[in-house]
Specification:
This is Bifunctional protein Aas. This protein is an alpha/beta fold. Helices cover about 35% and strands about 20% of the residues.
């Protein structure tokens, strides 16, 4: 009797389910998918109160995976009628699921698109919730793509609001393009947490680029909220170096070559002896005074393994500046080397500890224990033994001092999450791999050198090859040829030197060249490509932003055939998790596409603050937004275009005159002159100096009693008459206020530069004041 009863229950249940599938398909599908999704994912909704209580509205979301629509339906309180590509719903089963949720299907022909747009408009008028993925495609990098114009057509004819949402957590799932492919890969997390961020409703006449900005702001909030999920890099370097094994991991121009496990053994040994012989237990901030080299990499890693804060000090500045930095963050010990210290004319007030003296204190026991730690102890257990499990995302990892281009350097405090996010973003956007060889020529006191050529290189799989002088072109060319360099990170100033001094065959293995720190002259793209067959791309960042904000994806690294990911002349789109907006300097309102204003950045890459300068920190960071001080605009594709720096504008006759624009036009004029092009006879004969390739031009300003300020042009010897240059500026259509007077051109032996290759703005202004006073 009991068996028949159970069988009856089963039959009745099947009949009810069948009836539900036919007459109540939405409930049936939800009954199936909800428990399935709950099995594999954990959900969280933030901002549910922002959803209108009634009536129709348009949901606008990012698009990361194949199942974004299903996931959002799972999270939303009301059914969402998504407008989707019908070509993905070819099977009968897929069409049945689409019909269950009143999905609006369209295919790539004008009639279908018009029908879908009309259906979406009618749905909004009927009080339904309509959803779109305005990127029109799944992101291949994790970056938010440009929004298509269809949103505006759906909203025509009624006042339904727009609700921006951001679905966080799907990148890395089997349904996303992480790892360079869909589906056929292992997920990197089990029961990953998915969070739907819902923004405040926007008027339906909001410009599409401002709607996109709101979605991206939710992205930055999500990444900042989840910054604790970024891995501790000290633990990641253990994994990376162990996996590398005996393969070359670090090399430098002094002949040092280390495999992954050998480098790890040295770092553990150094950590032990420093903790025992040098540092007090409460000593946190440690100075590092070393050029980019194998030794500097091992020192920085050893400090991270010991949970200390490294501060790589700038060896191109004066003793006064160095000691100011040391005092600023209470550094008691500075790690350096006798060999390097003997080559620089700097006196350090703090206690210096040389690597040579430390080497003599490493015992046999230190070496044995370090070998066991590097090769035998399971990584999870090792992390606990080292206390790395206690490291928090907001703990300080490094202090990097600003370049001092406008005054005394400031100590920028960067957290574990700041640097770890930058490494993760580089992994997604640039996709460094085990076969790469990164030319590490940027100093570690430079934020790009620290985050990218040190940590990203050592954690993401490549081999790092280091040299202490980025202008030593011949040596860099030899290293690139010897080790097969594939990635070069530099400044435009450095590239000019390489064009003249490096043989094309030495850079033949390069497939990626990214430049930053200063504006890339238009002619330099062509010159570098003509010489080496590789076109550079620009990126952008500041020390306060850990440092990378945006980058154009190099062609060799682009994962998407049909997604725009670089625009020459821009500095790229913001990296995953980073949001940029441009605001009016007068009202503070966000600007529309193409309109210049102050560039603001938000995301998990925003610094903790300036060391010992709370008021200055609060001045530049407001409500999570960092004021870069750069003037820029964002185009309708989401790419950032830097047009100047606030400190590089002059107020002349009541108008803001951009120095960078004037520089660019003067450079164009000089470049047009036939005599400015190097002749065959002027080719490098091996006897010249790299000084020939230094920066040749700088526009600055000095006070003026009549107009407030006047422009000053500092220049190296010109290949064109000043009167001809002024005529070219007028022909180019520059306003009269933008054109310097003839007596404002001063020939100088050298344009003031910082050790990083950036223009020394303070030095240039001081020099201009001196020259103008003598005139």
């Amino acid at each position: 009797m009991g068996g028949w009863y159970v069988l009856g229950i089963i039959i009745v249940s099947l009949l009810l389910l069948s009836a539900m599938a036919v007459f109540l398909p939405r409930l049936f599908v939800r009954a199936i998918f909800r428990p399935m999704l709950a099995l594999f994912y954990r959900k969280r909704v933030i901002g549910r109160e922002n959803l209108p209580a009634s009536g129709g509205y348009l949901i606008v979301s990012n698009h990361v995976s194949w199942i974004d629509g299903i996931v959002i339906l799972w999270m939303m309180p009301r059914n969402v009628r998504f407008v989707v590509d019908g070509s993905n719903f070819g099977s009968a089963f897929a069409k049945w699921i689409a019909a269950a949720f009143d999905t609006i299907l369209m295919v790539a022909n004008p009639k279908s698109i018009m029908r879908a747009l009309k259906a979406a408009r009618e749905a909004l008028k009927a009080g339904d919730v309509v959803g779109i993925f305005p990127e029109g495609t799944i992101t291949r990098t994790g970056q938010l793509q440009a929004f298509k114009p269809g949103m505006g057509k759906i909203l025509q004819g009624h006042d339904a609001p727009v609700v921006p949402v951001y679905l966080d957590g799907m990148w890395g799932s089997v349904f996303s393009y992480s790892g360079g492919k869909f589906f056929f890969k292992w997920p990197d997390k089990f029961r990953r947490r998915l969070t739907l961020y819902i923004g405040k409703p926007l008027p339906n006449d909001t410009l599409i680029e401002l709607v996109r900005s709101q979605v991206n702001q939710l992205n930055a909030k999500a990444q900042t909220d989840h910054r604790h999920e970024f891995p501790v890099l000290a633990g990641e370097v253990i994994r990376a170096w162990r996996r590398r094994g005996k393969r070359l991991q670090i090399a430098d121009s002094m002949g040092t070559e280390l495999g992954g496990r050998e480098a790890l053994t040295r770092a553990f040994a150094l950590r032990r002896v420093l903790a025992r012989e040098v540092f007090a237990k409460d000593e946190t901030n440690i100075g590092v005074f070393l050029p980019p080299s194998a030794g500097a990499v091992v020192v920085n890693v050893a400090l991270a393994l010991d949970r200390r804060v490294s501060a790589n000090l700038n060896y191109t500045v004066s003793s006064e500046v160095i000691n100011h930095c040391i005092k600023e963050i209470d550094i008691r010990h500075v790690l350096t080397s006798e060999r390097f210290l003997s080559k620089v004319d700097i006196k350090i007030d703090s206690d210096t500890v040389t690597l040579e003296s430390i080497r003599d204190k490493i015992t046999t026991a230190d070496k044995v224990i370090a070998f066991i730690q590097a090769n035998v102890i399971p990584r999870g257990l090792l992390r606990r033994m080292l206390g790395l499990h206690r490291v928090k995302s907001d703990d300080l990892m490094t202090v990097i001092f600003t370049s001092g281009s406008t005054g005394m350097p400031k100590g920028v405090m960067l957290s574990q999450a700041n640097i770890s996010h930058n490494v993760d973003a580089i992994k997604k956007a640039i996709r460094l791999n085990d076969e790469d060889v990164v030319l590490g020529i940027l100093p570690f006191f430079h934020s790009f050198g620290y985050s990218v050529t040190l940590w990203a290189t050592q954690v993401l799989g490549p081999c790092g090859v280091y040299h202490f002088n980025p202008l030593d072109s011949r040596q860099i060319g030899k290293l690139a040829e010897k080790y097969g360099g594939t990635v070069l990170l530099a400044t435009p100033t450095f590239l000019r030197s390489y064009i003249r001094r490096v043989k094309p065959e030495q850079f033949k293995t390069l497939d990626t060249c990214i430049v930053g720190a200063e504006k890339m002259p238009a002619d330099l793209f062509d010159s570098f490509e003509q010489t080496f067959g590789l076109r550079p791309v620009e990126g952008y960042g500041t020390t306060e932003l850990s440092p990378l904000v945006s980058v154009n994806i190099p062609p060799s690294r682009s994962p998407a055939a049909y997604q725009l990911d670089r625009i020459e002349g821009s500095v790229g789109r913001p990296l995953p998790g980073v949001c940029a907006k441009v605001v009016s300097q007068d009202s503070g309102d966000e600007q529309a596409a193409g309109i210049d204003g102050m560039l603001m950045i938000a995301g998990p890459n925003v610094m903790t603050g300036y060391a010992g300068q709370k008021e200055l920190t609060e001045k530049v960071i407001q409500s999570g937004w960092y004021n870069t001080g750069d003037i820029a605009h964002i185009d309708d594709q989401g790419f950032i275009h830097i047009t100047g720096r606030l400190s590089r504008f002059s107020k002349i006759g009541g108008e803001m005159v951009p120095h960078l624009k004037v520089e660019e036009e003067i450079a164009k004029s000089i470049h047009q002159s036939p005599s400015s092009e190097p002749s065959a006879d002027s080719a490098d004969d091996g006897k010249g100096t790299d000084d020939e390739n230094a920066v040749t031009l700088c526009v600055t300003a000095v006070p003026d009693s009549k107009k407030g300020e006047r422009l000053i042009v500092l220049h190296r010897p010109l290949h064109k008459n000043v009167d001809e240059i002024l005529a070219d500026l007028k022909t180019a259509g520059l306003p009269n206020l933008f054109i310097p007077s003839r007596d404002s051109f001063y020939e100088v032996e050298q344009i003031p530069l910082l050790g990083t290759g950036k223009l020394d703005l303070k030095g240039a202004k001081d020099l201009a004041l001196q020259l103008a006073a003598k005139a």
